[in-house]
């Protein structure tokens, strides 16, 4: 994977892409989550909020697949 191309595609820096890949290799998808702030346990979150989170995750996964297809 070319970090420069990926950085341009996502309008970010080479360093950000490098760090994303490093975190993904170390901890998988869980390593890419936003760690800022305090999140409630899923049990305490209402269904709409939970569904919104799941939708964002699926959108991210789709974006990654599309990126892989562009780069291959």
From TrEMBL:
Residues 6-37 form the Insertion element IS150 protein InsJ-like helix-turn-helix domain. One of its GO terms (molecular function) is sequence-specific DNA binding. InterPro entries: InsJ-like_HTH, Trp_repressor/repl_initiator. Coiled coil: none annotated. This is Helix-turn-helix domain-containing protein.
């Amino acid at each position: 994977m070319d970090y420069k191309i990926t950085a341009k595609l996502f309008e970010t820096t080479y360093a950000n892409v490098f760090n994303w890949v490093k975190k993904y290799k170390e901890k998988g998808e869980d390593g890419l989550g936003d760690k800022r702030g305090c999140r409630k346990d899923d049990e305490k979150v209402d269904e709409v909020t939970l569904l919104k989170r799941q939708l964002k995750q699926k959108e991210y996964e789709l974006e990654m697949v599309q990126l892989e297809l562009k780069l291959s």
